Amino acid sequence: MKAMYLENKAGAESLVLGQIPRPSPKAGQVLVKVHATGVTPTELQWFPTFNMQSGEPRPFPIVLSHEFSGTVESLGPEVNDVEVGAAVYGLNDWFANGAQAEYCVAPASALAPKPRSLDHVRAAVVPISALTAWQGLFTRAGLQKRQRVLVHGAAGGVGSFAVQLARWRGAYVTATASSLNLEFVRGLGADQVIDYRTTRFEDVVCDVDVVFDGVGGETLERSWGVLRPSGKMVTIASQSEGIADQRVRDAFMLVQVDGSQLAEITRLIDAGELRVFVAEAFPLSEAVEAYSRALQGKMRGKIALRVD
Predict the structure, then answer these.
(1) What is the CATH number of the domain that holds 21?
(2) CA–CA separation, 114 and 86 (whole Å)
């Protein structure tokens, strides 16, 4: 099958387009014909990208991107609740080859019906970002109606879902963004929007029940002071992983594969409760350029790759 892959431990600039063996689904897995996938630049810093669960190096070639939208090509043994030909989206194993290829395998439990209101390109950027926001706000922080939440990085792929999901839950949403994105974030449902370049959020925000941080660094450090005594901090900033400060270690989260939560997100998208934003879409052959653009940051939504 055609795929974009790495032949050695290197950055996205070393991606190669070529032919690799097509995978076969094992028990509990599904083979998906990939139509589109999302670009996640931080994946190149993740432990599973170049290592097996045992800690041994993963064999090359390595295929990136673990979120996708496509159609079910075939079923492995013991899969009874998925139909061949169904339009699905989801995530696959972080320690396995990803979706920058014509086909990928994924656990049947990690899939959900693709939102009918989205094409494959728009659906492909949903799973990681939307599940991260869902699990951070609801699973980790237990956000409830009428609570106050502060979202940092509100115009990004995860932040835009966090604002919308918090609004859907009935929370009072304060969000930080650049001046160019203030109206965009307000349109997502934020009650209060702060230009982080001109206003220090801690000067105008206090007694927050939940901080959802997608920025890290100094922004994260300054956020502890705006929490209520019983407030919850959640950070997804990659540089927070492994920091010695126990507070930060406890606040850091990585998204977990969950098809049932993704199915609920599908329902919200098709009901018009969640809007999806694709910053740009590139053909698979231009993956190197797509990563270069993604690393520039400061975009609304996420970059997708068209595979089919």
Answers:
(1) 3.90.180.10
(2) 9
